[in-house]
Structure of Glycoside hydrolase family 5 domain-containing protein:
Amino acid sequence: VGEDGFYSSEFSNENYMKMNPGEWANNQGQDFIANHKGKDISYAAIHIWPDDWNHREVRFQHDWILQHIFDAENKLKKPFVIEEFGKTREAGESFDRRNRFLETAFMDAETNVLKGGAVAGTSFWNWYGRGDGRGDGYAIFSEDSSTFEVINKYSDRLKQAVHNKDENAVAFTTEEFNALYGLLSSEGRVETLAGKSGEPGHADGSSDKTKLNEPHGLALSGDGKSLFVADKENHVIRRVDTATGETTTVAGVVGEPGLIDGPAAEALFNGPVAVTVPASGDFILVADAGNNAVRRVDLGAGTVATFVAKETPFGWLGNPQGISCDETCEKVVLVDSGNSRVLDISNGKVAVLAGPEDKGWEKKGFQNGPAANATFSFPLNSAMTSDGKVVYIASNDNTAIRKVDLSTGEVTTLAGDGTDGTRDSENIFEEPARFRWPMGVALSPDGRLLFVADQYNHRVRAVDTQSGAVKT
């Protein structure tokens, strides 16, 4: 077909379009899956133009290739060719960056071929022979010896891979992969504490039996023994034993949305999305988004009460998505997402901390400075330091992490520059780190690291709260 591989708003859902290099790609008259479905199309192919698309990070190229390999194998069931890929090089510039882009594309191809996957070929862009000009910027000339070393090396490796297919084969060690992609090695492990992937529902009990339904907000008790969960689509609050994964429902009626205070087992929530607890773990404050309210669950008494109602002196709450507090929960901050503002709701009394006092939906923006002048665009979540001096905001549409100094009222940007992207701070272009819909944030116990759930990059990032440096 000869297309780039974009996903369109006409044929693909929102999650697919988030893979595109930008919103401009949503309506280019092409859709990778729809355009390759025809019975007369023998194979699928994509292009990758990192400079033209303003995605000059190797990680984007890697994600772009893997997404299309997945679609070729699972949706199209056709062979797949990485048809046009490369990297521009200015006259006099080192070959290192271009060679790295080519090498990582070849790496992805080889890994898939070894596993007997859909990849059937690669075709770098583009061969120019001899010449003094730079062609279209992507040109590879016969005198570019180091680039040809990469091409020859992987041509040989790909030939060998065709004859050595093994579904368990690994083309590269973890160390080699991380070194090439600039990723950090990690001793950490990811384990499932509670719930079953792909099986939404409600079930209490041991870790292997527990089911949840769109769990959103998390809050850890001071002793680290209890993890409280806003189980959104079940309309309940859960407690998970961090040692065993044993899960119980502490408040709400499963599957029954509503707004009723009283005994915890009879109280009703409506799509709770965020929770916060004091170090003592005596109670839980809940951002009850569907009710546009904040609720308090008293664990000792087993009761639920409305902490902040939807009607405030500054208008109605608008789909509050985040809540956080200091060590004692004497200082409490609510992210009033629909109004693009941050509220101080300490002791149940509402004051505007940062952002507009009214009609916030009309006053979205990305402005730092004094809290009264600062603007946000659909902020989603927050994390407060234990001493209550600073709160960090995942400002979703700003694709940035914002910082509010609670002692001075100053709003600054800790990380992100307002543009979607995947890169960490350490990148070969020495350009700012970027996010793609940062959704959740949590602080390390010492407050030095802020962990970010980077939704549409499908990864967890760590931000140094002193320097703003971002690492995946």
About this structure: Helices lie at 14-17, 32-36, 58-76, 96-114, 145-163, 174-181. The domain at 311-471 is CATH 2.120.10.30 (Neuraminidase). The chain has three domains: 2-167, 205-309, 311-471.
